[in-house]
Structure formats: structure tokens, C-alpha cells
Specification:
Blueprint (H helix, E strand, L loop, with lengths): L23 H15 L15 H11 L11 E6 L2 H22 L2 H7 L10 H4 L2 E8 L1 E3 L5 E3 L3 H18 L3 E5 L6 H6 L5 E10 L17 H4 L4
Antiparallel strand pairs: 1-2, 2-6, 3-4, 5-6
Length: 231
Amino acid sequence: MSRVFTPGEVFDPIPLPDQRRFPDNEMISRSQTFYDDIKKRHTTREFSSDPVPMEVIENCLKAAGTAPSGANHQPWHFCVVSDPTIKKQIREAAEEEERAFYGGKAAEEWLAALSPLGTDTEKPFLEHAPWLIVVFAERFGRLDDEQTYKNYYVNESVGIATGFLINALHNSGLATLTHTPNPMKFLNTVCKRPDNEKAFLILVAGHPAEDAVIPSKSQIKKSLSEMATFL
């Protein structure tokens, strides 16, 4: 059943649940521990076909669903693909778009920026990895009676939820890769999603292959002073 969003619904507050307050030294320790772990997250394009329990993916999706969103409309849908036939369809369609991209559609400056990352038209990971999570953004909501309603800050909301999902998958011990073939309209057809949804990205998830590599450039991160200003 679709959720019903009532624009004029009365604000009905409840006490903030699950409140936590740690001593300063524990906050510092916890923040350092999180950083030490998350900096071990790496994007790779080489995945093992070893299976990953569906329950892991389900738990990570539930974690993603806790993300904040504009007006709490939660304008996302996650299409989880493990069927080899569908994964093959996604790969073939994505590679067709990539051949057009690398074959003249992309500007030389863009291709030069991608060069150190080692990307090309071949996307075997779309078949090798056990799970593909196609993230869709709901451009507008639709109720059971086909009435529609507006969603707010859709890209921002879906981006935050995707970040939660990547973090949850990493925390579970899995590698991830974000893939954004351009255009991605074919994903609505392959995944049988309605026209009010727009493909946001494909998130590849699984164990890395034993011979997995990463581009050396990916290890270069901005320092705190370069990416933050304290006023």
C-alpha cells in the first residue's frame, strides 16, 4: 500500500527516541575508530562471484531507508538484481552506452580526467558480482489511485540514502562500485520500474576478487585543511 502524504497534516511531535550522549573522550575515540574503518573502503572493478547472503543486503537496505529526506517522503526505490539473465541484460545495455560515450560522445577533458582510473567500455563486474542494486529516484510520488504528489530535494535525499547504503555494505565486509552509464533510461525497462522513477546509479556489491586492484590515484584524498573551513 502506498504511503499517503497529507500536505496539511498537523505537526504531532513525540519525544526524541534513542538519545545518546557520550563523554568527550569517548566521542573522540568513536569518531577516530569510524574514520579508521571507513578509509579502508575502496572502489574496485574486480569482483568475486562468491555468493553473499540476501539477509546482508536486506539489512543494508533497511539501514539506507533510515536516511533523512525532503519532507520525509523517502523518494527512493532499490531494485536488487541477482538473476544472471537480468545482470547480463544490464551489462549489455550499459556497455552499449559506454561505447557511445568513449567513441565520441564524451569531451576530451572528461576522458582525460577518467584516464588515471582505468575505466573503459567493458563492464564485466555487472555480471561477476553477486548483487547489483539499481537505485531509482522517485521524481514524484504516486498513490494507489494514481494521484500524484510532489517530492522534495529528490537528488539530495537519494544521494544521502545511497551513502548510507555504501557505508552499511562496507561495514558488512563487502566491496562496492558506483556505476552510472549515461543515459540510464534502459534501467527502467530492464527493471520494470514506472515512469515516475529515474535511475540514479547502479551499485555493484560483493566480495572483491583475489586479484582486485584499485587505481593509485584513488588513494589521493584532500586533506582536512583543503576540504573544510572552520569559522
